[in-house]
Amino acid sequence: TNLEGERIAGSHRRVGEDSMRLLWLSDPDRYTPLYLLYQENAEWHTTKSSSTHIGLAAANGVAYAITASLALFAPSVYDAAEHDGFDSIWWHKALAFIHLAAMIALPALAHRAEEGPEGVQTMRNVGWTGFGALSMSIAVLYF
Predict the structure, then answer these.
(1) Which of 59, 83, 87, 99 could form a disulfide with 134 if both were Cys (CB 3.0 to 4.6 A apart)?
(2) Structure confidence by residue, pLDDT tens digits, 19-33
(3) Low-confidence ranges of the chain (pLDDT < 70)
(4) What is the DSSP string of 14-75?
(5) CA-to-CA distance for 132 and 98, rounded, in angstroms?
(6) Taking the domains of the chain in order of start, what are their residue ranges?
(7) What CA dihedral angle connects 47, 51, 54 and 58, to 10 degrees?
């Protein structure tokens, strides 16, 4: 999902950007105020299809929700009295708070991504942070 999002992120453009740039270049003195106004208020769109990213995100969210539900409702075999300090199970559970927060935040941030590069960058940061936390929470169980 993150890699597909990266592919789409580079294709964010303002609607009508090429036409406005040509108009501005034809007479910069005359059209600079109009061009600056356009840059502040133009809507953003992607030139590449985001349907694959949306599908992957939905599948990822469903798989995450099922896995989290199974983990939350499974009987515990972990005896806290046997383990002192920061062991792998403790780190696994601690990292879950980070990747859970990222998974909850990403659908809400998707709407900000439509507003331009700042929203895309925010979504990118949260997505990769969640991916890193999820990867680390898996890795601490094995290493």
Answers:
(1) 99
(2) 998 998 999 899 999
(3) 78-84
(4) ETTHHHHHHHHHH-HHHHHHHHHHHHHHPPEEESS--HHHHHHHHHHHHHHHHHHHHHHHSP
(5) 9
(6) 2-142
(7) 180
